[in-house]
């Protein structure tokens, strides 16, 4: 059990608690005669809640915060069918359950709980963001369950034992090719490039060997055309497509009828011969510079999300400490 049990009496969500929460988040002139059915957002963080209950009246709720409590079981949420955002982070939950009716859910956080298996989420087909870091997930096979969520773009698994596996990142990306962010980091082009790998056919223990064989065979199968397309996608992301050659110069002069007349001017012949190579050289310098800056941008974005995660974690821990100190002083 959480250490909070030793200092503060556990709570169950009741009318008094939700009424107080609503008043805290509403302007003073709108606090009277509040209809629970009109409430779309409800924050019940840091209230030492042990059991979820008494939320059936909030039938139009779209955002619910239950983080930083001591909740042990996900329950009594079946009436919140319009819920889009649910935060159950920093609790004592051991099993994923009670979410079957939340079919509109897009953002779910179960960060920092005691969950050992990803399950019972089949109906959450709209899920886009899923955070289940700092739990007890030990096997990479748990990731396979998430393949059913076609809209999943952001996933956080950091802090679970399974992250220690050397094949962790490759395994996740191979099974979830549509992911954009993994563990607060933007997935790189090089990592995403393996997303078409038929990962479901093998176990992760042989992922590296099969990945190398598959990648080599893919190069032969797709041929130069596919490789060129893949390269162009990377170049486009860096805004330097078609700059690594004479394409730009050729396209500019292909239908330029005036350019041919320059050859008749005295002393221009040598310049016309040297100009194309100089032009292409400048393009190639821009191309290399663009790729380098693109990699730099990716690294900066990755550092930003890592720093953001560290700051959020530190603020949450500091907030919990301040509240605990306040409650202890109040109890004396």
From TrEMBL:
It is found in: Cytoplasm, Cytoskeleton, Flagellum axoneme. It comes from the Eukaryota. Keywords: Cell projection, Cilium, Coiled coil, Cytoplasm, Cytoskeleton, Flagellum, Leucine-rich repeat, Repeat. One of its GO terms (cellular component) is cilium. Gene3D superfamilies: Ribonuclease Inhibitor (3.80.10.10). InterPro entries: Cilia_flagella_integrity, Leu-rich_rpt, LRR_dom_sf. Its main location: cytoplasm. Belongs to the DRC3 family. This is Dynein regulatory complex subunit 3. The lineage of its organism: Eukaryota, Metazoa, Chordata, Craniata, Vertebrata. The gene is Drc3.
């Amino acid at each position: 059990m959480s250490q909070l049990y030793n200092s503060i009496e556990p709570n169950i969500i009741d009318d008094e608690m939700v009424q107080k929460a609503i008043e805290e988040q509403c302007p003073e002139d709108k606090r009277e005669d509040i209809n629970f059915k009109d409430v779309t957002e409800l924050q019940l963080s840091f209230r030492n809640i042990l059991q979820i209950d008494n939320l059936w009246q909030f039938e139009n709720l779209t955002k619910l915060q239950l983080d930083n409590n001591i909740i042990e079981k996900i329950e009594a949420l079946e009436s919140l069918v319009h819920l889009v955002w649910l935060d159950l982070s920093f609790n004592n939950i051991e099993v994923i359950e009670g979410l079957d009716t939340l079919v509109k859910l897009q953002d779910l956080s179960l960060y920092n709980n005691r969950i050992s298996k990803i399950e019972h989420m089949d109906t959450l087909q709209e899920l886009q963001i899923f955070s289940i870091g700092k739990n007890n997930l030990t096997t990479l096979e748990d990731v396979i369950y998430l393949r059913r969520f076609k809209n999943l773009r952001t996933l956080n698994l950091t802090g679970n034992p399974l992250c220690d596996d050397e094949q962790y990142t490759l395994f996740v990306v191979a099974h979830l090719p549509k992911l954009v962010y993994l563990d607060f980091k933007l997935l790189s082009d090089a990592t995403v490039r393996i997303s078409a790998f038929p990962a479901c056919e093998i176990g992760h223990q042989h992922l590296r060997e099969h990945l190398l064989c598959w990648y080599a065979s893919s190069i032969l199968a797709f041929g130069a055309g596919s490789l060129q397309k893949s390269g162009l996608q990377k170049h486009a992301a860096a805004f330097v497509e078609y700059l690594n050659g004479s394409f730009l110069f050729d396209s500019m002069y292909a239908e330029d009828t005036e350019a041919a007349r320059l050859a008749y001017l005295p002393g221009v012949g040598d310049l016309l011969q040297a100009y194309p190579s100089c032009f292409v050289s400048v393009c190639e310098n821009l191309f290399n510079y663009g790729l380098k800056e693109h990699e730099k941008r990716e690294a900066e974005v990755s550092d930003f999300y890592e720093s953001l995660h560290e700051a959020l974690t530190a603020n949450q821990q500091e907030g919990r400490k301040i509240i605990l100190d306040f409650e202890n002083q109040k109890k004396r």
